[in-house]
Design goal:
Length: about 260
């Protein structure tokens, strides 16, 4: 308890410091960086990756099929708005899948790749491509199947759980409780108001990396001083479904996004 209080004091102090120094609005700064890159390189990294993803999408797998043979939730080959409706339950696998895991399913079950042949960077590039068809679309996930409701409940539990030496959880940093005390921190409220769900997949100019929501959540587990759950694992999917549901109705400004 004592430890936690001191830790919180530390966080509030640092946040206060950042605000006092008039730290630039992260959204404005991202826009500026984007413009800068566009002027120097002539093309955005996001556009390059989407192009790579498109090539991979249209590449034939060992079965001779391209990814156009796969159903991302709205029917075979339909990409328009599909990513904005994930995660969802799929009858063919009997599982709730997000964009990343559905891409894996497609590559293994339809295209005939072995799991060890699939590179993470390829999955992310394909995710960028598929997500690009959801720009301007509202997030619309549902809790229709019992599997979806169970996973949502797990996600909610994980989001509010506290653990580790610091005794903190996702909610410690990400609900508006912090916002009230430390001023406006648009990136910290991930449950709807800041529409955080709509920021990922994204290109991060601070470290020149491409991340999906799975990578974002894993990095935040690092903040918890907690072992990171594996990619495609249940805790990640559960948190994704929980946060996506909280963001229902938010319109995707641009996928893939361009963030710090
Ligand atoms: C110690 C504080 C802290 C904890 C604990 C934490 N995060 Fe984060 N999280 C951050 C910060 C800071 C950022 C923003 C990083 C940036 O803007 O570069 C962030 C970003 C995010 C984002 C992206 C938000 C956006 O608008 O782009 C999501 C989603 C997220 N975290 C989810 C989680 C989940 C899920 C957990 C629990 C497993 C968690 N976080 C735990 C500090 C934390």
């Amino acid at each position: 308890m004592l430890l936690r209080s001191w830790w919180m004091v530390g966080v509030l102090f640092l946040l206060g410091l950042a605000l006092a120094q008039g730290e630039v609005d992260p959204r404005e700064e991202a826009k500026r960086q984007k413009q800068l890159l566009l002027e120097t390189a002539g093309i955005l990294p996001t556009e390059l990756i989407v192009e790579q993803g498109k090539e991979l999408f249209n590449r034939k797998g060992p079965s001779g099929k391209t990814m156009a043979e796969c159903d991302f939730g709205l029917g075979k080959g339909v990409l328009e708005g599909a990513a904005a409706r994930l995660p969802r339950y799929f009858l063919d696998t009997g599982k709730v899948e997000d964009l990343d895991s559905r891409i894996l399913t497609c590559m293994t079950q339809v295209q005939g790749f072995r799991p060890d042949q699939i590179k993470r960077q390829e999955v992310v590039a394909i995710a960028f491509y598929i997500a690009s068809f959801s720009t301007g679309k509202p997030i619309q996930v549902r809790l229709l199947f019992p599997q979806e409701r169970e996973l949502y409940a797990l996600g909610e539990k994980l989001f509010y759980a506290r653990s580790g030496a610091k005794d903190i959880g996702c909610a410690t940093c990400h609900v508006s409780y912090m916002e009230r005390r430390a001023g406006v921190l648009p990136f910290t409220d991930v449950l709807g108001k800041a529409k955080a769900w709509t920021h990922w997949p994204a290109y991060r100019y601070s470290n020149d990396q491409i991340w999906t929501m799975q990578d974002r959540i894993r990095a935040c587990y690092g903040n918890l001083g907690h072992p990171q759950p594996a990619l495609y694992s249940l805790p990640i999917l559960a948190l994704e479904l929980f946060m996506a549901y909280q963001n229902n109705g938010a319109v995707v400004e641009e996928w893939p996004a361009f963030v710090r």
